[in-house]
Design goal:
- The protein has 376 residues and is mainly alpha-helical.
- The chain is 69% helix and 3% strand.
- The chain has a two-stranded antiparallel sheet with strand order 1-2.
- The longest helix has 30 residues.
- The chain starts with a strand and ends with a strand.
- This is Monocarboxylate transporter 11.
- It is a multi-pass membrane protein.
Length: 376
């Protein structure tokens, strides 16, 4: 541009020509140049939203099962162990992956819950989810939103060689001492982790608490879980303790809370223990997936997460039916909660054997972030 010192007089330099500032060849680019670094912000926040919705809907349905438990036992005239298989089978089929799998999983979850509303036998309930028509039809509509969450997971292509089938099923991770111990610990944890969300409402009713108040205990535990996830993330980011130590601390708190649950004989005591359980369980969940990258590196985190979900499914397939069987045999929930606490504390002992992340693994985390090109 020009600076005008007086009317009609120009002082200063001229700007470069328009063609130099905006080359014409830029108008004919057919594709975007790949960025040097992975994209940050923007669409990433929508992926975070998708993850939040997916976890809220899937685990929300699981955690609300306790409220339906006693009604299902009465509706089907079944034992506690038989109805507990519903949650066990649900846990065994939980999978986490990318866009098409999440969308398909959301559709199957919605159809399964919809069909469960019309179940007339316990076997049909195993294949779907439940019996209470109004509640489960509403849950089916909510589960359908998982498809929207999956649609937000826009795929990103990595520059380089295409992935091989062997890279998708990276079972070689199980041969690593650190990841093998972590997978075993998560399997033991899952055998007791979900026990309160199955029996907490029924346990409250057994103490003489009215149904709505007993259901509030479950809701309060879930609320404490959600808030603790945020707070635990802040604590972990400060680096006051290594993530592995935090993992052991929070997991041990989960186990101790389960052991003390049978000692609660009042509504106030049950509320307190439910809050402690929810807070410790939520804190563990946040820290657990912060430990994985330190054990396997960023490039293998997706495969490691999938294998961990599989190991948790195996533990979840064992825990709920066993806790229900103990309830049927003993006539109360004491043995069920003690069993759950014992499994969780055994997981803490396994987590104590986790190795500290090696310097090579830490340096790899800084160098393993490949350049990414978004596909539209």
């Amino acid at each position: 541009m020009f600076l005008l010192s007086s009317p009609g007089q120009r002082v200063g330099r001229e700007d470069p020509p328009l063609s130099a500032r905006f080359p014409l060849e830029d108008l004919f680019l057919t594709e975007m140049l790949p960025p040097e670094d992975p994209p940050d912000g923007g669409w990433g926040w929508l992926v975070v939203l998708a993850g939040f919705l997916a976890n809220s809907l899937t685990f929300g349905v699981l955690r609300s099962f306790s409220v339906l438990f006693e009604d299902l036992v009465g509706a089907f005239q079944a034992t506690t162990a038989q109805v507990s298989w519903v949650t066990a089978i649900t846990l065994a089929t939980k999978q986490f992956a990318t866009r098409p799998v999440v969308m398909l999983g959301g559709l199957l979850s919605s159809l399964g819950t919809f069909g469960a509303a019309f179940s007339t036998s316990l076997f049909q309930l195993y294949l779907s989810l439940g019996f209470l028509t109004g509640t489960l039809l509403a849950t089916s509509a909510l589960s359908l939103h998982l498809m929207l969450s999956g649609a937000l997971l826009r795929p990103l292509a990595l520059r380089g060689d295409p992935p091989k089938l062997t890279a998708i099923f990276d079972v070689g991770l199980l041969a690593q001492r650190g990841f093998g111990a972590f997978a075993l610990g998560t399997a033991l944890l899952a055998a007791g982790y979900f026990t309160p969300y199955i029996h907490l409402d029924a346990y409250g009713r057994a103490l003489g608490i009215e149904p709505y108040s007993a259901a509030f205990v479950v809701s309060l535990a879930a609320l404490a879980d959600a808030l603790a996830r945020l707070l635990a993330g802040c604590v972990a980011d400060r680096g006051l303790l290594p993530p592995v130590y935090l993992l052991v601390v929070f997991n041990s708190l989960v186990g101790l809370t389960l052991l003390f649950l049978p000692a609660s004989s009042s509504y106030a005591g049950l509320l307190l223990l439910a809050i402690l359980y929810g807070a410790s369980a939520g804190s563990f969940a946040t820290v657990a997936f912060g430990v994985l990258p330190e054990l396997v590196g960023v490039s293998r985190i997706v495969n490691a997460t999938g294998l961990c979900m599989m190991s948790m499914s195996l533990g979840g397939l064992l825990g709920p039916p066993l806790s229900g069987f103990l309830r049927d045999q003993t006539g109360d929930f004491t043995a069920s909660f003690l069993m759950g606490g014992a499994f969780v504390l055994c997981a803490s002992l396994v987590f104590l054997a986790l190795p500290s992340p090696s310097p090579s693994c830490r340096s790899a985390q800084q160098n393993e972030m490949p350049s990414i090109v978004g596909h539209h």
